[in-house]
Predict the 3D structure of the following.
Amino acid sequence: MNLTPHHARFVAYWESRRQGRNMPARRDVDPLLDLPEFAAWLLIVQNHDGRIFYRVLGSSMEESNGPRTGTYLDEVRAPPFRDYLQAMYALCVAKRACVFARNNFHHDGDKRALTSRIVAPLSSDGETVDMFLGLQISHDLAGAPLPPAWDRVPKFREDLPNDLAWRDPATGEWHAVDWRDWA
């Protein structure tokens, strides 16, 4: 898996907070203090029995997607993109591991862009995934970051490659999956 340097740093941060456990707890991470350079692209999400609740979204995410803090995924996203995001979180819960997702969008007519995100599980009891910590960055096809409000209504391209992979915490290996198998 070819992670951006930002995503690789995020994974290393999550790994450092595990401290030999399956996953860290929310109390073990302080991303605003420890990763201030990513504050605008961070997200903290709660898992309410499989229903995804956006607890906190960074300012760049709020600017480019519209207000999402305090909402449920199924209230603000429609299929097939909602299904893709649900698959990402379901995989994270099932594997109790970091999940990398990269998907294609069209915006401003025929321009293409990519959004890359990592979601990492958090657990208050060490076993059950009850929260997620994430990092999401949108960029053009050459890898240059897009301005925060690049498009409020991008079109998810189900017909283009949309990567989804999980990282085995024991080996560090990435395993690609078809997101439709997890939706």
Q: What stands out?
A: The beta strands are 42-48, 51-57, 71-72, 99-107, 111-122, 131-140, 155-156, 163-167, 174-176. The chain has one domain: 5-181.
